[in-house]
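Worked problem 6 (solution included).
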Amino acid sequence: MAIIIFYVCSYLLGSLMAGFLVVKLLGKKDIRDEGSGNVGARNAGRVNGKISFILTFLGDALKGAIVIIAGHYFGFSSELVLGGLGFAILGHVKPITLKFKGGMGISTFIGGMLAFEPFTALVIITGFLLLYPFLKSFTFAGLGSFLLIPFSFYFLGTDPAVIVVTGFLVLAIIYIHREDIMERLR
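Solution. The predicted structure is:
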């Protein structure tokens, strides 16, 4: 029962949309009616400037980090804690608070992964820096760097269940970006 409550709370926390709040407070606008209509950090920056991007990114990343920290605090296994991150990402992508139209989950994923294993920051940054010169796309280089996380966990000797759940989360993020990917491949 405790894990179900944790997952429901993770989803609800994920449904709190930083971009909507930041742009509403700083820009007096509804971000859903501006730019791409997405409530994530990229659109917040596009619509309302760098400060809105930074605050939205940090707010959305904090959701993922809080879920990981809370899961560890309550003593759940690592794979169950990462499951909570999955629910927070789901809440971010399909928020009950905004009629199930949210962001793309990147910031929440990054915040959660950094709280889970801070070493992933080095993996993401290194992967991005290695991939960007070849791919010339922030989206592809970023998503490609995420693919390296499960492999880094394998080389760190991480529990196989954690590697599988992490791999699933990475594939979910890529799936969420499928339209973006297809558009860039054209």
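Discussion: Residues 2-185 form one domain.
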